[in-house]
């Protein structure tokens, strides 16, 4: 279990004031769940992810992963960003194996494991390619494979599909659901897209800016339905999907009119 309790992050503002980038955020990410954070620009989504990754210290509150305090980056958390961070001079296979260089595994085992992960993300034919030979969507697949290389307990994804065209984005969402269904990894995923949040999240937390707060939480099962039935049209045309879309859109645009916690519903 990843547990974020009353986490706050303050930054010094230019005028001598304090920016409340994250204000008393609490959430839990269980095995087999995908928690999606959704909200307008500046509501603290990346701050929350960076704190979970151990890149950023909390000003207050705590984060634990399976009971251990999160204080610095570690191999138990794999991170994927919007912009890929692949090394251009290394092959696709070696980029994936990179995370294992530090694990002390023999070269042969590193390469076998990397090849297995490239199969998982549908890139088995591209092991020897250079990153620049791949499309944006393919590079993000490599990023996902690399983040999984150390067999982390959780995958942290900061708008990983935000720069992709809409068709590629849909393919990547389905790929991520496949990876999730096969590996059972828990995932923390950030997006600006309400549709993406509803489609991917087992839980969606809606955040609002200044101060960055979690203002609503929805537990959903569209993603489990997709994993079982693979019928994206049935999900998108489900009236409940449309209804939630409208309610969340209202919340994102007028976040202060309600605070909703797990188990409660918005009227
Ligand atoms: N290092 C920093 N120093 C000062 N202020 C910061 C710093 N990092 C973030 N902030 C501020 O904290 C707030 C939350 O930023 P954050 O990047 O977490 O938001 P976000 O929801 O991820 O936004 P976006 O969707 O645009 O990426 C913003 O007001 C931002 O300007």
UniProtKB/TrEMBL annotation:
<protein>
    <submittedName>
        <fullName>Taurine ABC transporter ATP-binding protein</fullName>
    </submittedName>
</protein>
<dbReference type="Pfam" id="PF00005">
    <property type="entry name" value="ABC_tran"/>
</dbReference>
<dbReference type="GO" id="GO:0005524">
    <property type="term" value="F:ATP binding"/>
</dbReference>
<keyword id="KW-0547">Nucleotide-binding</keyword>
<dbReference type="InterPro" id="IPR003439">
    <property type="entry name" value="ABC_transporter-like_ATP-bd"/>
</dbReference>
<keyword id="KW-1278">Translocase</keyword>
<keyword id="KW-1003">Cell membrane</keyword>
<keyword id="KW-0472">Membrane</keyword>
<keyword id="KW-0813">Transport</keyword>
<dbReference type="InterPro" id="IPR017871">
    <property type="entry name" value="ABC_transporter-like_CS"/>
</dbReference>
<dbReference type="InterPro" id="IPR050166">
    <property type="entry name" value="ABC_transporter_ATP-bind"/>
</dbReference>
<feature type="domain" description="ABC transporter">
    <location>
        <begin position="2"/>
        <end position="234"/>
    </location>
</feature>
<dbReference type="InterPro" id="IPR027417">
    <property type="entry name" value="P-loop_NTPase"/>
</dbReference>
<comment type="similarity">
    <text>Belongs to the ABC transporter superfamily.</text>
</comment>
<keyword id="KW-0997">Cell inner membrane</keyword>
<keyword id="KW-0067">ATP-binding</keyword>
<dbReference type="InterPro" id="IPR003593">
    <property type="entry name" value="AAA+_ATPase"/>
</dbReference>
């Amino acid at each position: 279990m990843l547990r974020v309790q009353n986490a706050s992050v303050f930054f010094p503002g230019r005028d001598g004031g304090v920016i409340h980038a994250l204000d008393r955020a609490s959430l839990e990410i269980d095995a087999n769940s995908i928690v999606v954070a959704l909200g307008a620009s500046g509501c603290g989504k990346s701050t929350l992810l960076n704190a979970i990754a151990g890149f950023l210290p909390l000003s207050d509150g705590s984060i634990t992963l399976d009971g251990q305090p999160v204080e610095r980056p570690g191999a138990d958390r794999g991170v994927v960003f919007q912009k890929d961070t692949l090394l251009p001079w290394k092959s696709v296979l070696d980029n994936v194996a990179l995370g294992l260089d530090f694990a002390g595994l023999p070269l042969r085992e590193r390469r076998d494991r990397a090849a297995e992960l490239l199969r998982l993300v549908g890139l088995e034919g591209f092991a020897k390619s250079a990153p620049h030979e791949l499309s944006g969507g393919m590079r993000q697949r490599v990023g996902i494979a690399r983040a999984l290389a150390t067999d982390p307990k959780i995958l942290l994804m900061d708008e990983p599909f935000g720069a992709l065209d809409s068709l590629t984005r849909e393919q990547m969402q389905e790929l991520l659901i496949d990876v999730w269904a096969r590996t059972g990894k828990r995932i923390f995923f950030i997006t600006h897209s309400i549709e993406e949040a509803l489609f991917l999240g087992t839980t969606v937390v809606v955040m609002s800016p200044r101060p960055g707060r979690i203002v609503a939480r929805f537990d959903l099962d569209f993603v489990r339905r997709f994993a079982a039935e693979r019928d994206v049209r049935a999900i998108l045309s489900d009236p409940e999907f449309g209804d939630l879309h409208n309610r969340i859109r209202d919340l994102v645009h007028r976040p202060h009119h309600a605070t909703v916690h797990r188990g409660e519903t918005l009227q």
